[in-house]
Structures are given as C-alpha cells and as structure tokens.
C-alpha cells in the first residue's frame, strides 16, 4: 500500500515560504494596484479616484517624454551591449589568451550601477575627463555638454551602461559557444566555411537559446532603468533624460503623489511583463517551429 | 511517520494568515494619543546626516543641563527621509523629534493633526526674547503654533578673499553696479564670478534676482496672486539670461561640491544661506581670513530696504508621541540661549535665538542687523511642492541652455494654475 502521509504533509512545509512570498511580494503588489486607483499623499487615507491617475499619466507630456526615453533605453540596450558582448565572445572564443582578453570587458560588471553613474558623470561633465582628453589632442567637442540636452544625454548614458554590461553578455555568449558540439564545426571548416561565413551559418543559429536569454534580460533591465540616470542627471536638465522608473520615483517620493506613482509603477510592470511574455513566446514559438 | 491532522493543518494556516494580516494592519491610527512615558534620551530623526557631530555635541549638552540626552538619527537623502517620516505616522513608532520643512510640507502634517501643538512654548519663548516674533508666521496655522525652530539662515554672498585680492577688489560690493563690476574684474583674472547649478539649488538666482527687483511680486507669486508669465517675472528671467550669456556663472553641471569650488578658487562668489559657513569650516577654511560674505545688494536700487532671503526649518514631534513630557522638557531647553549658543558654535552657524553668543564675528553682526532688511521667505519653502518641482525642472534646463524663458514659465504657470485651483 502506498504511504500518502508525506504527500499530504508536503504542502504544509511549503506554507512558510508561500506566506513570506505573499507578504513581501503579492500583498504589496495588490496594495500598489489599489493605490493606483486612489488619490493618496501618504498621510491621509486613500480616496478612490478611479482612472484619474491613468488619464493624467497619458496626458502629461513629461511622462510621454519619459516613455520615449524608456523606449530609447530598450532599443539601445538590446542592441549595443548585446552586439558588443557577442563580438567580444566570438573574437576571443578559442583564442589562447581568450580569458585574459575578455577580462577588461567583464571587470566593469563588478561595479554597481550607482558607481558607474558617478564615474561617467565625472567623465562626461563639460570640463570632465572626456572634454579634457579631446582638448589635449586638439579634437573638437572639448566643451560639449554631453549630458545637458536630450536625447544626447540618454544616448551617452546608454553608452556608459554598455561599458558596464557588455562583459556579462560576452560571458553568457561564451557559455553558449562552449555548449556547441565541435564536430559539426570541424566538418564545416573542412567544407571551407571560415570567418563570417562560419559565424553566420553555423555559430549564430546555435547561439539562439543564449541570445534569447541575453536579449530577454536586457529588455527587462532597460525597462526599469533608474540608478545610472538618477546619479548622472536626476532625469534632467528639465525632464530631458527622465525614464518611467524615474517618473515613478519623483511622483511618489518627491511630489508625495503616491497614487500617481503607483499608476506608473503598475503600467511599467505590465509593460515589462507583457514585453517579456511576448518576446519569450515569439522566441520559443520560433524555436519549436525550427525544432 | 506521524500523520498531520486536519486540525493541525488548519491551525498552521490560521497562524500564517494571522501573521500576514497583522503585518498589513498598519499599527496605530495617525494622531491617536498614547500614554506618556518619560525617558532619559530622545531619538532625533533628521535629514542632515552631515551635521551628526554638531547634533551629538548638543545631545551631550542637553544631557548635562536637563538630564535628557538626544541621539541623532541622520538621513543623507532628503526624499528617503521624507518618505520615512510620512510612513512612520502610519505605524506605532512615532518620531519623538524630527526635522521638517515649513510651508506646505508642515501644513500637510498639521491638517492631518499629526504634529504636536506648541502654542504655549511659542508664547513663552517670544515673551522671553528667545525667538523673534517675526518667525512665528512660518509655524502658525489658524493662530496655533506647531514645532519649534531648528535654525535660521540668511542668504548672503560668500566670496574667496584671495581671489578678490588677486582681482584687485578692495571692498565688498554694496550696490548691484559694484557687484557686476566685481564680476568683470574676477573674469579678467580667469575665474568664474558666480556659482550656479542645474539641480535642486537651480532656483537660487531666480529668487535672488526677483527678490532684489520686485519683492512684492515675489510674495504675490508665492501665494498664487501673481503669475509666472507676468512681465516682471519675464524681465527677471531675461536679466538672469544676460548674466549667463555674459559668462558670469560656473558650469551648472559640475559635480564638484560648491564649497570645494570656492576653496579652489574656481568660482569667486557663492550665493548661499549662512549654514554654508559650516560647510566651509569643515574644509578648514577660516572665516574672515580665507572667506567672507556680504549682503547681496538689490537689483533695483530704488527699493526702500535691501531684500534678504531667509529660511527657517522646524523641529517637530508627533502628536501621538509616547514621550510627550520628555519632548517638551527637551524643546523648552532647546529654545534657551545656552542651548542655542552650544548649537550655533558646534557648527559655526547662526541661531534663531538673538541671545545666543555666536563666535563668528561676521555672523554675530548679521544676527544683530537682520531687522534692517526686508526678509523674504526662501522660494523653496514659499512655493507649493508641485509648482516648485516643475519650476526646478524648468530652471535646471534654463541655466544649462538659456533661451526664450516664456515656454518654461508657461509650464510652471500651468502647474501653478492646477495647484491653486485645487486650493479654492
């Protein structure tokens, strides 16, 4: 006879973990959802306001600007760091000094986003390191305000973040390259495939799974961009470099409009969730078709 | 293996549920009175993490004088601090003492009955001459007072004495014309005359120019009786643009701290509150030797009194504090000349108490002379939060890339219209 005692007791062992997750994750999420439909300043009790916060969000030109900047971050982060990471991985894979060649790209990943912001802030201010270097070599642009007008400031911050995150992408791609069986590659080489041709027809298709992961992570990361922007420009000058995550922070903790902040938070969560699902379904669907 | 009964499983579920619900409960209601429990020491929450040493010295002095110590809990980020204090009112842990802002921020707490009333303390302190009568307005709502003053700051122009000497400036400017002449002399030796930034303190030159040109318009703007698009405001913005275009300001995007810029001689003058003396002193700059300050002359020389920007911040206590009698004992002491002498000199700063013996001779003289000026409430406190936030964005963009000020002013006015419409 089958002993079912363990099976029956098993859910009980999971209860503490479920309770902690519910307490720290789901209840705050439900609370945030509720708050987003209210007018709430953090002091008096929330007052139901229906869709007012959502209407205000989509009619505020500054928030539309933040949405555009966020999209710029998405495009930037799923192209630059991914492409650079792939390039570094492919060029160094199999090389005798590959590990050492990848190291300079990987080291910045050990630095926090805030520290990256501080460092690049000093580099990019008008009399900063970049300006001084350009001036020293007699090149134009020594007095450019790199962070002082949009969308240039957002682009410069995407470059700064690329500097930090390309290394980890390279590492992931190397893992992907290591998982490719060597025999088909050797066969392809014997057939005369080399260089870009080998990459295009043999390596790239087999890197598909890891590329899905890398782009998926970049997508989610870019949608919630906050730290680098906060440290480097605080969303300014004006609101020229503000992202949705920054707008959420400003509405909640600077303007004490918790309802509006919650509405942006919920919108951002839904966009991130929807983008992740759509992207993964598309990628996995394609993979199944090919499989 | 022992089988777990349905009863035990149900109990476990109930316990987990109860824990979850109690965590969501939120504790005591805001403003609910609780029993008074005298204590030996009070926690003093503040958003001035850099002032920790001075607060600690004052805590030791209060322990010695009245047997009640004070332990500072300092935050360095103002937004985090504000969110913490606001949310603390929805918990059982009400702050005994905490720094706050005057203006709308204090009114929010008063409207919700969250801060302790201090009318009796104010009446006595004013009668004793420990707090100037003119400070009362910033702490009054419906003729009742809340909180006590933390500090009083007057906005003046700090300057690097070595730079002035090198530029051949013998005396501190007394008129706007002399100030611009000094700026030209400083520029001639390759130093930027004035400090400016595009974050937070981007409002400083706006308030200085407006207060010195048309203080009545300044006050009307703060109360919603004038518009940011009025010609007087546009004129001030154009005056500001003229100075920026003339190269009179430092790089507004610079990450170098203003006190370091003044010490290094990167800028000659910085327009700041008298608390800036404390920042300079921490860099080992000596008042009267390495730096000094002068009262900023009016842009409009025909005004009867020189306008001087004034700021004050409160020390408040939660209405539902568990330690009300100890808080009163401590704040009574805080208002005395002895406490304020200790406080002012611990930071090398001024005090709101005119009887405090301030060691810095320049600051002491200013403390005596303030009644001769037209005191103007600092723009940051005088302006409602949403309007100030929008204006800071506009000013930040303007100092970075000055152009036609009208589109920016229209943005601020739109925010002001929305705000004042809600107040009616």
From TrEMBL, chain A:
Q: Which residues form a coiled coil?
A: none
Q: Where is the ABC transmembrane type-1 domain?
A: 67-279
The record's subcellular location field reads:
Cell membrane
According to the record, the segments passing through the membrane are 12-31, 71-93, 105-123, 207-226, 258-280
Q: Which Gene3D superfamilies match?
A: MetI-like (1.10.3720.10)
Task: Report the source organism.
Answer: Kribbella aluminosa
Q: What is its main location?
A: membrane
Query: What Pfam families is this protein classified in?
Result: BPD_transp_1
Its membrane topology is listed as:
Multi-pass membrane protein
- Specify the protein name: Multiple sugar transport system permease protein
User: What is stated as this protein's family in its record?
Assistant: Belongs to the binding-protein-dependent transport system permease family.
The record's section on InterPro entries has: ABC_transporter_permease, MetI-like, MetI-like_sf
Question: Which terms are listed as keywords in the entry?
Answer: Cell membrane, Membrane, Sugar transport, Transmembrane, Transmembrane helix, Transport
PANTHER family, per the entry: ABC TRANSPORTER PERMEASE PROTEIN, INNER MEMBRANE ABC TRANSPORTER PERMEASE PROTEIN YCJO
From TrEMBL, chain B:
**Secretion signal: which residues?**
1-28
Superkingdom, natural source:
Bacteria
Protein's UniProt keywords contain Transmembrane helix: no
PROSITE patterns according to UniProt: PROKAR_LIPOPROTEIN (PS51257), SBP_BACTERIAL_1 (PS01037)
User: Which keywords does this chain's UniProt record carry?
Assistant: Signal, Transport
Pfam families linked to this entry: SBP_bac_8
Gene3D superfamilies named in the record:
Periplasmic binding protein-like II
Family (UniProt)? Belongs to the bacterial solute-binding protein 1 family.
Official protein name in the record: ABC-type glycerol-3-phosphate transport system substrate-binding protein
What organism is recorded for this protein?
Kribbella aluminosa
